Input
Amino acid sequence: MSSHRAPDIDRRAAEHLLAGRPAGHATRPLAAALRAAAAPAHPEELSGERAAMTAFAAAHLDPVPEPRRPSVLKSTLAKILTVKAAVILAAAAGTGGVVLASTSGVLPAPWTDSPADPPAVTTPQHPSSGKPADAGKPDQQGKDPSPSMAGLCNAYEAKVKENPGKALESPAFTALITAAGGKDGVDEYCDAVAAGKEPGHSGDPHGKPSDHPKPDHPENGSGNGNGSGGKPDDHPAAPSGRAHTPDSSPEIGDPTAVPPSGVPTPPAPGS
Amino acid sequence: MTAVQSAGDLSAAVRAARDGNEEAFRVLYREVQPALLRYLRGLVGEDAEDIASETWLQIARDIRSFRDEGVGFRGWAVTTARHRALDHMRRRQRRPAAGLSADLLVDLPNEHDTAEAAIRLESTNATIALIATLPRDQAEAVLLRVVVGLDAESAARVMGKRPGAVRTAAWRGLRRLATRLDGPAPDVAAHGVTPAGHRAPKGSR
Output
């Protein structure tokens, strides 16, 4: 059939070929094949780039971000994560049902239904509230949590499917656990975030819900603009770091209660 | 795509990606994904794309904790992919039978293809499919050395074998490949495919 026999490749010739060096005339067909195997990237081979980048963005949400370009970063992440991550992660998990359901608003109402969320809490719960350290940090995660939290929830849900027991052990979810008030509350919290951002879409490119309290304190019930549920640490201090009193109610009549990140807060009903 | 020439670039990109730099991660993806995908194709065939996607999800998550333990980012990435591929094969109870169809054989590169000519995707895939017909340790050894660009020591670490064993496996693999390239396999001949070297020229020459 073939006019010549296959070359008898010795170990030395093999090492040459493995390193991409020529090893004599007889091995030219093999060398050509190995060249093809090691060819530069074909564009078709990079089709998963977007999914990989989205996964990277989701995995690298800092629990406590450095003070760096907050509004651009957060709004970008919000856009990427709320839309793409759900799709990608759903695809990766093979079943889109859970993720889609949790972002489409079919889950129970966000802030008041959960037994773990006593409504109408009016006194500060977190020992950290009112601490000067809190008031002075303009870019703390908790101040503008919604976009990042939605992303973290998406990442969390994906991780749970993969490894239910250990999902929350990742330091990436520290902020999520803190916001949810503990590991046990994360599921409910993420349900609430998913349901809470859906109605009305709010038209806010930053994805910041304007009609209910900050989602990092879901227990801060009744909400919806009456202002009575406000806790001191809900209200970001002005960048000057001036102290604010625990009973101040910046949503009404406090024009300085604007997140220092540069995300504009819609005007309160009373102002 | 050779490991040697871009090793320096990669370590800088790895450092930046560990700090959360997206563009650095993109560099890593573009640099490593083709080899990763081809390696997986040699192990699990058509499921390679899925395993590669899963692998990158894991890499994206775990890169912060990546510590170079001698095999570099490439070796780490390919080890991650390997674990997933082995899990996959365990679930399937076996490695998918690597058949080399007549169509694929036609796409094998020609010895007259010059190094300068652009290598087509089909040629690459046909060669990977040919390598996939080797016994697994030989296929892996060849792929890790040639496609991923690892040296024998790194490839051995990835495979959990001694370097000498990997050298031998790669050598045997190459001998077998050379034999298969020399003449058509019997089942392929039955399909009436002309032997390699007598194919009609195609692509750019």
